[in-house]
Amino acid sequence: MNAEPDIESHGDEDIFAGYVPAKALRVNFNYLFFPGLILHELAHYLACIVLGSKVYGVTFWSPKGGVVVHHRVRPSSAVLISLAPFFLNNLLAFYFITAAIDGYGVWALISWWLAFSLAIYSLPSMHDLRMSMNSLDRSLHLRRKQGVLGLLAALVWYPVAFVLYYLFLTPLLVFARNRTLRIAWFFIFFWIVESGVFSAAV
After folding, report:
1. 84, 94, 116, 145: most buried, per Cβ within 10 A?
2. How many whole angstroms separate alpha carbon 64 and alpha carbon 29?
3. In a domain, 101, yes or no
4. Contact 165, 75 (CB under 8 A)
5. Strand partners, 68
6. How many whole angstroms separate alpha carbon 73 and alpha carbon 52?
7. Alpha-carbon distance 99 to 139, whole Å?
8. Residue 51's Cα: distance from chain center in Å?
């Protein structure tokens, strides 16, 4: 049996393929809102570089989505790589929302377009979340095989994994699976920006 390759991939598919019911009216959102997809993949790529994971290949944009193929990393790094677009895209979306509110004319319209693009592609894709969860599962499985030291490490790691699974990754999974919620995230994020919560955090 061949050994499992030490390669992982992160990326975003065409999250809105077939979103419009009428087939003739279907539009690939990867074309309309390409800045969000490009920044999504760039965030994965930069996270790999920062965390020291060798990148074997990267596609920043294609009609079907994008992908970053990299060397397998430890679970904590896998989660950070998966969530990198959430932080980078929303940070930039915050900038463009404020620019749109304060701006006028063409620049305001462009800023709204960029903010929407970045926000809807900030959420991890199903593939991103699966990679994170598989990495956590693999880590827990390996720790159970490491005897007493592994058991002690598991006592610390299990609560951390529980928090990552059920308090953070699972809510994101709901958004990732539902296209309407992805769009709704922009309006939720806009409300957060308007309420000043995000400004206070940064």
Report:
1. 84
2. 10
3. yes
4. no
5. 10, 58
6. 9
7. 43
8. 16
